[in-house]
Amino acid sequence: MINLSHVSRQFSGTEILHDVSLRIGEGERVAVVGPNGAGKSTLMKIILGTLDPDSGEIQRSRSHTAGYLPQDGVVHKGKSLADEAATAFDDLLELRRRAEGIHREIDELVARGQGRSVEVESLAEELGRIQHHLEHGEGWSIENRVEEILLGLGFQKNDLGRATGEFSGGWQMRLALAKLLLREPTVLMLDEPTNHLDMDSLRWLEEYLASYEGSIVLISHDRRFLDNLARRTVELSRGRATEYRGNFSYYLREKEIRAHHLKAKYENQQEKIRDTMRFIERFRAKNTKASQVQSRLRMLEKMERIELEEEEGGISFDFPAPPRAGKIVMTLEGVHKRYGDQEVFSGLDLTLARGERVALLGLNGTGKSTLARILAGIEPFQHGSRRPGHNVSLSYYAQHQAEELPADRTVLQTLEEVSPAGMQQRLRTLLGSFLFRGDDVFKSVGVLSGGEKSRLALARLLLVPANLLILDEPTNHLDQRSKGVLQDALLRFGGTSVVVSHDRDFLEPLIGKVIDFSGGKARVHPGSVKEYLEKIQREREGEKEAGKGGGKGAGEVESLSPAKRERQRKRREAARRQERSRRLKPMTAALEKTEKEIARLEQRKGEVESELTRDTVCGDEARVRALSHEYGECSRDLAALYEKWTALQEEMEEVERDLPGEAPPRG
């Protein structure tokens, strides 16, 4: 559908993309990865057609339509939530209005006794054509489709009539995503779609996209999201694009293998160059070797030099050693919080102990960020008490703090303003750890990307020692490398940390307690995020089986349109295929590896058998003992591999019985 050939693009004299070729066919699932500033969003805009390349060609099929979700900056005003989402169907809505107008015209003609006129026949023919288009495009179920997508992305039914101007930036982006999904373009391009989603909405989006019929191009720093959806990964680095035929985890493994092979080739080439240079230096002055010296010089000039990719920098830091706090770091008792008529908390009790690592989870709007601000002491509440423990020093990172940095300051000035005495000389080193190097420290904050602002805001956080960290979505806009190093730093942090995040992989190794919110109440779940999610899933399945809460009654199911039931069926099938593939893929890889090892050992065992029968070997007692020993090892190893092969086959058959379908391809 879309083909980029040798595309390049510069900004301010810096080449962002160099000689990039990429094809996006039907039904593709492509992840675009790379460090912040590598050109991922630029590539998206070139694919979309809103940005022209400096050189290269782009071919697009006439039948394709493309839709793009930017990282931020979308604002909707002037309509209700439902009406704004329905603008995705403006063409169908216009047809509906025309159909209603035709009905009125026909009624008026009939009332005047002209029911058999040529004009009525012409209107009836037009109405028939319109009805056909509306039925083909499901034009009579627009309201149901709008509601389905909006509720899936976390909006509530009572939000549908609210003015769009009442919603915050994160909800505005959800609305933009809803409109994009409702349009169903043939190429769906999503730039960090998970940044504004909670875990429930994220799971819903994954399931929806798994059954999406068009192609999808994704930029995301959520590793699990990419693993679950992508089938091909394109890495952008130093302006160049490299393709990997698999998801993000496959890309990481394959990249390491390729880097190892490239380094070996590089070292071999460097050794050859050194040998050649030694020859040239040794015989440069000898007339008898002049032609050979010139030949080697020409060879060096023509040699295509192998370049090793420089290691990309990442954030490398430790939080300052905090003063030791008391055993109880923070206590909330009977906290009541309302915004007007909206009750957020009612009688909330919470105790944070020294060294605890807590995640605040729940749907957006249930109070996670509000509680983070209350714990930080910057959000008032109506009733109850907040009591910090002995010797508590607190640092708070706000969800939108990066957007509130002073735009007229430089990067260096932004830290100098909050730096304690004696730290000024270390600020450049600190900024270097956050990827601000050289003249980058003199950039104005106003020109920084979202990721750069997030890193700068986190750098500010480091300047004052604290034993209680409260972090509200600290990983938004951070790349994989930066998230990993922040994660490592939090693991080494000796104080108490409270984290609001929807990033499952980021939270999993950190968290020992989960607090979730629903209906103005907070529930505490000891254990990891994975254990919490599994528990919630079991609870929901139990409610459905008991006919409570999350399930639909039989009447509701029957009332669904055939098209909606078909979409739900496709999503269920896609989810089943995805789970089957996820479980079978490692087994298939292990089976292939086992079969290759069996083939190798069987071949070697046959070679040993042949060698033992040779006359030249029979008289060599030491050689016979060595071959006999190797034969025994081959036999034992083969027996173990046969058992392993049988066990893998049985496991795969069990999965195939549980989740029948096509087996994954084996290479």
Description:
- This protein is an alpha/beta fold.
- The chain folds into four domains: 81-221, Rossmann fold, CATH 3.40.50.300; 252-302; 328-538, P-loop containing nucleotide triphosphate hydrolases (Rossmann fold), CATH 3.40.50.300; 562-658.
- It is built from 21 helices and 18 strands.
- The protein has a six-stranded mixed β-sheet, sandwiched between helices. It has a six-stranded mixed β-sheet with strand order 14-15-16-12-17-18, with helices on both faces. Strands 2-1-4 form a three-stranded antiparallel β-sheet, covered by helices on one side.
- Helix 19 (562-612) runs antiparallel to helix 21.
- The longest helix has 51 residues, at 562-612.
- The relative contact order is 0.08.
Concise synopsis of the structure shown:
The protein has helices at residues 40-48, 81-86, 90-111, 118-136, 142-152, 169-183, 199-210, 223-229, 248-283, 290-302, 368-376, 411-416, 427-433, 450-461, 480-492, 504-507, 529-545, 554-559, 562-612, 615-618, 621-658, and strands at residues 2-11, 14-24, 29-33, 55-60, 66-69, 187-191, 215-219, 232-237, 240-244, 328-339, 342-353, 357-362, 383-388, 394-397, 468-472, 496-500, 513-518, 521-526. It has 667 residues and is of the alpha/beta class. The strands form 4 sheets. A 6-stranded mixed beta sheet has the order 5-6-7-3-8-9, with helices on both faces.
